[in-house]
């Protein structure tokens, strides 16, 4: 540890030894858990652990449904899947984190500019609620 922190201190101009020690002290020892590397970038596609996030999104609590393109398996998944994959894959949905207002805007834009089929109001509301619940930057 001393040699590594000494090298890092010389290369970065700061000592990471106190950071690594403090982070290690906060986590309970688990021999099956890999030791975090503070120099490695965080993979944004990996689900956050309880230590990494104090708030959990709704999609983190819901398992993906492989039958519906790995969208979160919750009320509205089937309607959302069939409405959206008529034009694009679920991959574009899974990468989103939009405000509720942006989801409303995109819905209107897709209908008016892209020719998306407009379902009945009840189905529209269910799909938008699903998208806002699981892919919103506000939750």
TrEMBL record:
Residues 47-67 are annotated as: Disordered. Keywords: Signal. Residues 1-25 form the signal peptide. It comes from the Bacteria. Residues 47-61 have a biased composition (Low complexity). One of its GO terms (molecular function) is heme binding. This is Cytochrome C-552. It comes from Pararhodobacter oceanensis.
